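Researcher: Quick sanity check before group meeting.
Model: Go ahead. Protein one:
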Amino acid sequence: MSRVSTRTLALASSVAALSMTLSACSLLGGNTSAFNVQVGQCVQLPNDSTVSRIEVVECTAEHDGEVYHIEKLTDSSRPSDSELDDRMTEVCTNTFEGYIGAAYEDSSLEITTLFPTDGSWKLGDRDIVCIAISDDGSKLSQSVKGTGM
């Protein structure tokens, strides 16, 4: 049986988001450009389906999810939503066990993703961001790396 990600969040395009991609970003530090998240960062996910900023927090603090993989798209033009969905499902499920320590099918975690919108693609966004979240919607309070959750 295959499970589908609980939600996907598109990256919004804006001049502010573009300027943030050009500036240095710390591993922790509150509100970060969604273009600049890194593997191992724990995040609070916004309620909006399209985001340009995401809150990064310590993994020991309550958080919604943890970035466990970022895949750089090399297509010359943005794939269709359907193609992106297929690639996100494949990439995020195939890389899940290597980071979490358990196969996705055996895990108590779900997957959500960030992916480029048409607008953010024009600004150079090429990343599919895979984020592990609790399967029951509860907050996490530790890193999920290697936990086998």
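Researcher: Fine. The other one?
Model: Protein two, sequence then structure:
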Amino acid sequence: MMSKIIFDEISVSYLTVEYDPIDIKPYAKGNTGIPYLWTFDSGKPGPHCMICGIMHGNEIAGALVLDQLLSEEMRPLIGKLTFCFGNPEAYQQFDANNPTQSRFVDQDINRVWGQELTDTSQNSYEIKRARELFPVISTVDYLLDIHSMQASGPAVAISSDTEAAFECVKKLTQVPFVIAGKVPDPQLLRLRDLPHFNDSKHPRAAIQIEAGQHWERKTVVKANQIVRQFLQSYGLIPASELPPALPQRQLKTVQIMQQSADSFHFSKDFKSGTFFKKAGSLIGIDGNKQITTPVDNCYLIMPVHFRRFAGPCGRLAVVDEAREV
């Protein structure tokens, strides 16, 4: 069960849901023997690409993107193409009047891709769903996992620090911020952390895209653009005109802000991607303590507005000069 969220004036302003969730039940049967999972094989050599959405039930943009791609009967020119509705039970609990409360059924499905897959003593809904999906995911070459975030701001890609992931994300010119790094906790593996996507001997990659604020209409538009560019870049769908490329910054995390008091608040409504020129710039107040930037030339990425006591409040990151092209 999720703990109670602590709201303030800024976080309340992000509760407006600008678009309606869709009914995903027509996709329940799938065509693979796995509910809500669809795979199409061109019969020609090429990569197996997967588009995954709604791993978190409150991040509803992914369902709309998957619906559009399936509705237009998108099929791969080469290789295989798989569409995955990740956490359908959580998604179907979504309530626009209480939109923060359907992230998962039992536990975060984006933290169960390690020993949980084989530990038969653990049987939450999300673990059983991960086990159901894993045999197909383990055949995928390139995976794009559509997510969204609590704050407004431009899209962010999160990936491992492998060369394959780096080459994959460089193709996504509608994503201005990229954060790469190693697995933060080997006991809580995300989908992108699977060893399958982190083997230097094989050019496979899983990219997590935070396409924008959860319930802003433009997040659906941006996610759709990113997905299509991803598939075009691997030759699975025909090339088409895309918006002008955005400059892409390769970032590394220098601090994950953690609140220690139940009265944490941001000093203003910072967008994800806000740049702070000087160290010591005020970001928020945690009880009686000021939270400031630890270094010069720092970006605030994905500030957390729907906070739970003693939880993370966002990332502070700087340009990774070694990865800048």
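Researcher: One line on it for the slide.
Model: The two ends are 44 Å apart (CA to CA).
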